[in-house]
What we know:
This protein is mostly helical. It has one helix at 34-62; strands at residues 10-11, 17-18. This is Ssl1498 family light-harvesting-like protein.
Amino acid sequence: MRLLYTMPYTTEDGGRLNNFANEPKVYQAEPPNKNQKRNYIIWGALAIILLGGVVAIAFYASNI
């Protein structure tokens, strides 16, 4: 099966086609709210605990 993709051309002044890609819309990101900040802290703590556990297991296994 062959997928066809047509390149989106832009049209310059005078009707000439330009092969450059269309630029996406730019928007400003919103800062995280309190719930999102809390979730970031929880996920960060879980990641640190998991990483600490993996390092502890590796350390214990290397000293056997």
